[in-house]
């Protein structure tokens, strides 16, 4: 009972200490939320980039495809008209447009640049499809085969659904690594650890209270992120097994606390702990998929990202929050995070010391 009473008292004292620390409140809660509002607002209307096509002169085939496309063609292709053929070709050469299209009798001519093979291939594919549709319409014979395309993600997958888990993961990593490392160094250099060791409170209650308060703060962060992201302006859609974010957050906090404890057990000063923490958190945030999707990153970056635990937290939350996958999809990521937490705890115990003597 003494241990339980000490645990409750320590939890309450640590929680009140955090609530009264304006700096900690700002950088742990408000600062990441500011990034969420900023990034989600800036990229709210950004979608997949369209192919930019300049139509020179009359092109009945292209006009008919755009008019009869029911808006589907307009989602992937932006057509502008120009009478200046040389100027239009120059825009393609400079990369300001993806293709110039002109019609010569029954021939649709596409001018493209080989500098961007992806865009040029997309343009040629679109124009080929348009010509084939025109041939079918001219012959009066229906096509024997049809192509139906379906997006694997829900239509509601927007910028807010990427930034919510990504920036939350970054906030949790920062709070866990810096909070644990700075607290441990401060307690050791000021002799608090030595006094705690001699106090009636069990050591397990002290560190258990620290972990419990950190998890509680992280769950509050999760609730605030979801509350802000679901405002009508951002309109975050939560479907399926989104509630798996809760165990994901808990596993992530344990992993980041373990990393922070390793740094705090090794570092002799707060400056050293802060420097090492920056060297861990900043690369982890950029290479772990917090600020941009790893799907568009170079192959080497995607490979390196597997080293960082933040990748697994971000990917796990994206799977259940944005990609509509089931609860089982998050289990591998949770397992990796818990394994990192165990490994970090083992290393921290080997490096731990009660004082600097």
Structure description:
By secondary structure, the protein is an alpha/beta fold. It has helices spanning 2-20, 22-42, 60-68, 72-76, 85-94, 117-139, 159-189, 192-198, 203-229, 245-266, 270-287, 299-305, 309-321, 331-351; strands at 51-56, 77-82, 99-104, 107-112. A four-stranded mixed β-sheet has the order 2-1-3-4, sandwiched between helices. A hairpin with a 2-residue loop joins strand 3 (99-104) and strand 4 (107-112). Helix 2 packs antiparallel against helix 7 (159-189), helix 7 runs antiparallel to helix 13 and helix 10 (245-266) runs antiparallel to helix 11. The longest helix has 31 residues, at 159-189. It is elongated, with a radius of gyration of 28 Å. The two termini are 33 Å apart. The relative contact order is 0.12. Residues 145-156 have low confidence and may be disordered.
Number of strands: 4
Strand order of the largest sheet: 2-1-3-4
Mean pLDDT: 81
With helices defined by DSSP (H or I, 4 residues minimum), what is the helix count? 14
Helicity level, as a percent range? 55-70%
Distance between the termini: 33 Å
Q: Which consecutive residue ranges, at least 5 long each, have pLDDT under 50?
A: 145-156
Give the C-alpha Rg.
28 Å
Percentage of β-strand residues: 5-15%
Q: How are helices and strands ordered from N to C?
A: HHEHHEHEEHHHHHHHHH
Rough shape? elongated
Biggest pleated-sheet summary: 4 strands, mixed
SSE blueprint:
Blueprint: H1 2-20, H2 22-42, E1 51-56, H3 60-68, H4 72-76, E2 77-82, H5 85-94, E3 99-104, E4 107-112, H6 117-139, H7 159-189, H8 192-198, H9 203-229, H10 245-266, H11 270-287, H12 299-305, H13 309-321, H14 331-351
Parallel strand pairs: 1-2, 1-3
Antiparallel strand pairs: 3-4
């Amino acid at each position: 009972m003494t241990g339980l009473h000490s645990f409750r008292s320590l939890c309450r004292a640590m929680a009140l200490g955090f609530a009264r620390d304006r700096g900690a409140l700002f950088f742990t809660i408000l600062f990441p939320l500011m990034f969420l509002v900023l990034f989600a607002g800036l990229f709210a209307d950004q979608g997949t980039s369209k192919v930019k096509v300049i139509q020179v002169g009359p092109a009945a085939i292209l006009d008919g495809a755009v008019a009869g496309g029911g808006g589907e063609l307009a989602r992937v292709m932006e057509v502008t008209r120009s009478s200046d053929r040389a100027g239009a070709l120059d825009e393609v050469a400079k990369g300001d447009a993806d293709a110039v299209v002109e019609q010569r009798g029954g021939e649709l001519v596409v001018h493209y640049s080989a500098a961007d093979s992806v865009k040029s291939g997309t343009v040629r594919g679109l124009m080929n499809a348009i010509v084939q549709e025109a041939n079918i319409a001219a012959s009066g014979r229906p096509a024997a085969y049809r192509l139906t395309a379906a997006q694997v993600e829900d239509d509601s997958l927007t910028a807010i659904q990427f930034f919510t888990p990504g920036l939350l993961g970054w906030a949790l990593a920062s709070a866990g690594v810096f909070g644990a490392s700075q607290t441990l160094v401060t307690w050791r250099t000021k002799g608090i650890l030595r006094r705690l060791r001699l106090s009636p409170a069990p050591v397990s209650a002290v560190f258990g209270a620290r972990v419990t308060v950190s998890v509680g703060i992280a769950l509050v962060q999760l609730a605030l992120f979801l509350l802000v992201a679901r405002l009508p302006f951002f309109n975050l859609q939560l479907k399926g097994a989104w509630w798996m974010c809760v165990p994901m957050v808990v596993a992530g906090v344990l992993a980041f606390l373990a990393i922070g404890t390793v740094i705090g057990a090794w570092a002799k000063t707060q400056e050293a702990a802060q420097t090492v923490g920056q060297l861990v958190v900043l690369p982890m945030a950029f290479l772990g998929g917090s600020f941009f999707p790893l799907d568009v990153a170079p192959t080497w970056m995607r490979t390196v990202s597997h080293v960082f635990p933040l990748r697994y937290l971000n990917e796990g939350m994206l799977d259940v929050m944005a990609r509509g996958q089931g609860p089982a999809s998050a289990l591998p990521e949770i397992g990796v995070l818990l394994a990192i937490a165990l490994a970090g705890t083992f290393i921290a115990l080997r490096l731990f010391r009660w004082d600097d003597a």
